[in-house]
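step=encode ok
step=design start
structure_in=
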């Protein structure tokens, strides 16, 4: 039920994900998964994708979907924009739901809002002709903002209406209705498509290096941060594993954040530096860079590069 992008081709055919054809819908920010359960009941023939950033919500939703016997949903933990760009094929989606998105009310945080012109451009390439996004929110300012952003892009026709009853049964809907707050709803129907391609992320072969010299003890390690144009890499922690060292790293790229395990361990041909075998991230340019950052840290500890491929 959980989508693991590293194990999928980009884009992934819905038949491969769901084992059947059918209309494809996506919920962005599904929270505790209540709406996905509703939707699965209302539209048993639809294949449902869900994207949610918060890991705790994803676990809660997974438990709920299993408990309710929903088989037509597949969940992704991470940014919906990553799922749209990489996993969803062009013109594949019939419907996208955004229920009570984070409003980011402070002016300086507005750039974090999801429903902005660049998002609508990407969305236009993944929705089928006439497909639509349905927005339900309690936040009048974000509501007007998203309408303005969509109109500025010129790819969507926007229609305000009463929210469909099923969108009023989410956790946040209940919270705002209990406080008697008004709820706003609009449909954004695709009218044209952005000419931008929004190509999927490039993937690379396994990055690694061979070094010579003695590995330092884990105690000398200190958190190492590199902020780069393509990715931010943080080597967070290091610990001893047998004669080698294991490193926990966080790699942040445009719409993708991954925690990965790297290792540096003695081998017959030198100190091998690369990904831990049981860690199978998406090998992006950021993951390649993380190996480079580790190699540079090891160079500062006195090791020398014999061979590199990253
Ligand atoms: C205010 S909550 C609403 C949750 C749920 N839709 C409801 O109505 O109860 C917004 C949710 O959107 C998620 N979220 C925010 N930005 C996201 C993004 N770019 N991709 C996926 N999920 C996102 C947050 O983690 C959060 O769980």
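sequence_out=
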């Amino acid at each position: 039920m959980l989508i693991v992008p590293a194990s999928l081709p980009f884009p992934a055919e819905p038949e491969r994900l769901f084992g059947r054809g059918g209309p494809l819908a996506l919920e962005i920010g599904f929270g505790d998964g209540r709406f996905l359960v509703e939707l699965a009941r209302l539209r048993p023939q639809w294949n449902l994708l869900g994207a949610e950033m918060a890991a705790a919500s994803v676990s809660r939703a997974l438990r709920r979907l299993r408990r309710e016997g929903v088989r037509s949903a597949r969940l992704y933990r991470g940014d919906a924009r990553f799922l749209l760009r990489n996993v969803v094929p062009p013109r594949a989606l019939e419907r996208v739901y955004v229920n009570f998105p984070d409003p980011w009310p402070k002016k300086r945080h507005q750039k974090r809002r999801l429903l902005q012109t660049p998002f609508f451009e990407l969305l236009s390439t993944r929705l089928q002709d006439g497909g639509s996004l349905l927005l339900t929110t309690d936040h009048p300012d974000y509501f007007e903002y998203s309408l303005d952003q969509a109109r500025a892009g010129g790819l969507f026709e926007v229609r305000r209406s009463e929210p469909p009853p099923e969108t009023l049964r989410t956790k946040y809907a209940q919270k705002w209705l209990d406080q008697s707050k008004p709820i706003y709803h609009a449909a954004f129907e695709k009218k044209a498509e952005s000419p931008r391609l929004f190509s999927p992320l490039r993937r690379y072969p396994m990055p690694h290096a061979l070094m010579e010299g003695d590995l330092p003890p884990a105690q000398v390690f200190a958190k190492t941060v590199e902020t780069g144009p393509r990715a931010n890499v943080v080597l967070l922690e290091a610990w001893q594993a047998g004669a080698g060292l294991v490193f926990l790293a966080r790699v942040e790229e445009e719409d993708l954040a991954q925690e990965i395990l790297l290792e540096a361990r003695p081998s017959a041909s030198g100190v091998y530096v690369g990904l831990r075998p049981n860690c199978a991230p998406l090998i992006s340019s950021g993951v390649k860079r993380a190996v480079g950052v580790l190699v540079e840290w090891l160079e500062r500890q006195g090791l020398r590069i014999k061979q590199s491929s990253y």
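step=design ok
step=annotate ok -> The mean pLDDT is 96.
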